């Protein structure tokens, strides 16, 4: 979620709201000061029972096991008058085991159909109240069985989610079986018929509170016959005939409170009900658009009547129910609760209104209608805060849930309304929520923690939460044995851990251990996502990352990455592993992650996920892990090179297909005879690899089903699957689609002329109708069809000769389409894949494999990206690859020179320009020339490239790049003087600070250790990631730069001297190490020769002199 003002919050010393403290923590004043042993068994029975009453069921059972006496007391009937099973999976077996305790059970709350089925096994014949939620799957049979076994039932509530499978038959059973029923509230019924309502009126004479909420149809006439009703709610119910309602319901003799919120009631019906009903005192009509649109409607003329609507002051309205309204204001609910003498009738109204308001405000927050910002800030938030102090547990929970919900304005894009969040903070909401979180009631703990989590997305609120002790409270709740409580607490720690200032406090409060333990306790499903997200944030901090590792976090996260099928969990686990591995040499976590059994294999597997976020984070983790020597080779052994190449291909698959059609249609004329073309495609090794490519407003996807290792068969398999996608989604006749799909799915041989003839005909029609007609059609063509046509042409050329040739002058438009295709890919995804390949390519074997697996073309496409970070990773990877002459030629053949030239001349990143220049220098220092005679392609005919033209272009831009770091006046001064000040001025002008992080290791490669900090946002999952990237600058490459100083090209001499200068500038992180390597290699002699050479360019001479002085400086430094 996005984190966003600073508001002064209440001091801890201020008087707190009078809510009960946490009984589980207790009061320090109860403990004796002396060190004498306490005989707890000597406590009076009443005291022990009081202790039991303050504990949840799990702790109550644990305490009962202390001794025989306490076990007996723990079974006392007074402790089992109510039972909340919402946090537990209650099956018939569990219910039977509880039956002996439930003889006097009067109230039960449950969640879900399975728990509902188990209620009858409790044998609680005296049950008075049943309340259930998540009741969508409850059937008539279950509900009928429940009411048949509990004839003393007085209250039945099912909601707020819809009871979709409950019909009128079950409600009739309620009427017949429960004659003592007083309160009935049901949500989401399809039809409440007249027969049902009449049965309730006849058989339930004490029914005073009726709620048919969010129903599709309720018989208005029949409701007018329930003469016993005092409080009636039809909130959210549709298809109401308000004319009938206004003519009948005002006759109900006892009706005091009516709730019509979230309906389409109009002003005329409201006026008639308020004016005609002698008993009606309160009408709640919140969020009724038709009523609110009438600006002429006035409530002042209905004296003695209270109307609560969005355009009325709710607090003033509630205060009007009391005789003394002078001191109430926004505290009206609190003042009413604290009254010493209460009017019974007003108390019943207020109790009903609390329930109605909490329900309506929660439902309104869930639907998030437009135009309610002013209402939420002035009235909605304060009312919810007042309801959080209600004596009704259900009202408190819904108020907390309402606060958690109304601040979220876009859960898809993870954003909250900062004004609403800070309004809650200003009105003391943080302290109220934390007090609820300290309650012993787990339902309150869960909802309060959820609200704190969502509000903490705002940085100011997060600060207030921390100052009020919220971190310690959430860390404690994360250790709860209640799964719902622990998960919501983990969500709060996730959002709080975004702030750097909170990470240490979370660790000190034991939050890291609690989060790791939570994963081990509940590792299935999606319950580990919030814990993994919090650990990912904490792992970005060096100290906290060590705590995560010490607490067993590496094993827990790898377990999630390997075993959990939830994409959200996979994404956060991969991100956490990436952050753990991002600290380089500062701790040993990088090696620890790599050595964890199955870690690298799991991350490689996740790079093949269909979910972009999972692929992105897994690639980032591999990137960071490849900083370690052992990890690098293990990643390659686990198939990481191939996986990452395929990952890049997924972002440029359209590019490969479009290039093939360009290569195959060079002739303007139509071919009348079979023509053979050779187009290189990578060999695909994966049994089920899915590719998704975004292209403009279209999406291309293909599933490669078990292609063999041979190029031809694998390519044909790919073509077939591309065409399956096209035939499913392309605009072609249903008959042809059905015929083609049948032929493909029946296993037709890829080369079968029957299928190819049919597919070719479709290709011909598309080319003729959509491409040859105009140039614009080439750009606008559905890329799915274009890719499919490309595949068919590639497969059929040489087999079938009759096809239409695309005109030559549309080729440039294909190139535009290619650029757009690559540009539409996710920059984060591109950066991680290229970065991982960059790190892996420091190994020569890996570098060759990347080139052979087709990794060059996608990297070139990424080099054309507009994102700076993608520039750097793509340029770094191409630089490493260019060290190998075969890869260098591939880069030239794939059009990489223009891309590198563009980077070298126009990138906003100095490092991207620097590495692009060095890559070009590698490519044209002479080593590629001999290899160019052989070629790189696996086909018999190599691609023809103009090396001379490419060389001239490269040299020109290398020279321009080097000159941008020179100052003619400073060079002239340095040439005429050897004074340190003159050389220092040249050095300062030439220095690229980021290059100082290069280091040459014992294994003769340099690792580039600068870090990128990236911020991402989602609801309850804002996070930042620290990523390491690599430059493969080996000891052999040091020799290559030294050798360039002898190259006949003056441009390459200057470039080599410039590079060596960057690596040895004093103050650079690894400059001393580099100087030692160069001294051992005898570079000083070559540098002196270059500095003294009459034919060398001035830039090369001056840079060589500076490098010599750097070597002398480091030699003296090392000898001290």
TrEMBL record:
Q: Could you list the residue ranges that cross the membrane?
A: none
* InterPro entries named among the record's database cross-references: ARM-like (IPR011989), ARM-type_fold (IPR016024), Armadillo (IPR000225), F-box_dom (IPR001810), LRR_dom_sf (IPR032675)
Q: Pfam families under this entry? A: Arm, F-box-like
Locate the compositionally biased regions of type Basic residues. Answer: 1-14
Task: Cite the residue spans of the region called Disordered.
Answer: 1-24
| Biological role stated in the UniProt entry | Promotes lateral root initiation and development, independently of auxin (IAA) and abscisis acid (ABA).
Q: Which residues form the F-box domain?
A: 37-83
Question: In which compartments does the protein localize?
Answer: Nucleus
Keywords for this entry? Answer: Nucleus, Repeat
Instruction: Write out the similarity annotation.
Output: Belongs to the beta-catenin family.
Any Gene Ontology CC annotation: nucleus
- ARM repeat segments run 428-470, 469-511, 510-553, 552-583, 598-640, 854-896
Quote the protein name from its UniProt record: F-box domain-containing protein
Q: Which Gene3D superfamilies match?
A: Leucine-rich Repeat Variant, Ribonuclease Inhibitor
Give GO terms for biological process: lateral root development
